[in-house]
Amino acid sequence: MMRMLRWVGIGLLLAATAGCIKVDQTLTLDRDGSGSLDIRYGMSEQTIAQIKAMEQMSRNAGEGIKVEQESPFEFDEATVRKEFEADKPQGVELVSVSSELVDGWKYIDLKLSFDDLDALKKTEIFKNSKLRLKRDDEGNYTLVQKSAGGSDVNAGDAPMQEQMAAMFAGLRIVNTVVVPGEIIKTNATSVDGQRASWVFDIEQDPNVLAKLETTDLTVTFSGQDLDLAP
Question: Please, what's the b/e burial string for 140-169 (b: 16 or more CB within 10 A of its CB; e: otherwise)?
Fold first, then answer.
């Protein structure tokens, strides 16, 4: 599948591009266990141009380094489709992909559908995030997307945080989960009905890179009238 964003470890991945990134992801889980994944990611045109220039410089120097392979993002619709179809797991389909330019930013919008979470977990996006759905003794479900840990960013190191905040100015990641039952408990930033959202905004929190590396996204919801596969 395409070299796309893996939520956990995003700070290290972004270091390769050294530019502003915006990502908005919504995972919708339906009552039968199937669902959809909507992703919108963007990067400034200036950063994209810098990456291409770096690649060209490496080619001219004869090093043969593919700079864009260090980036988890692709901004060409045809390339996104090709990479997805070449490595898609069974039970996952690319519903749509489109791009647009807004105020100097290039955005890609994707929509995937999946038969069940097992299929979704085989995609490049969730391969390292340890996505898990479990049911407790009361019949409620907990959906967890675990972090990989191992961050080198120390949340208590103020000077380091200031440097990182300057380097990744504009970084904003919103991860939303829509569940098929009433939300009982979650560590999400905000809850709206059956929608839980985690917001990682470096302008609001300079510790956001460390939190991206260490935060397990967790939401527990009612299992009434549901029978979801684990």
Answer: bbbbebebbeebebebeeeebbeebbeebe
**pTM of the entire structure?**
0.79
In terms of Cβ atoms closer than 10 Å to its own Cβ (0-12, 13-18, 19+), residue 208 is: buried
β-partners of residue 93 are 113
* Strand-strand pairing, 172-178 and 21-29: parallel
H or E stretch including 192?
Answer: strand 190-192
Query: Tens of pLDDT along 82-125?
Result: 888 888 889 999 999 999 988 888 899 999 999 999 999 988 87
Region for residue 98 given its phi and psi (left: phi exceeds 0; alpha: psi -120 to 50; beta: otherwise): beta
What is the token pair recorded at 169?
């100015």
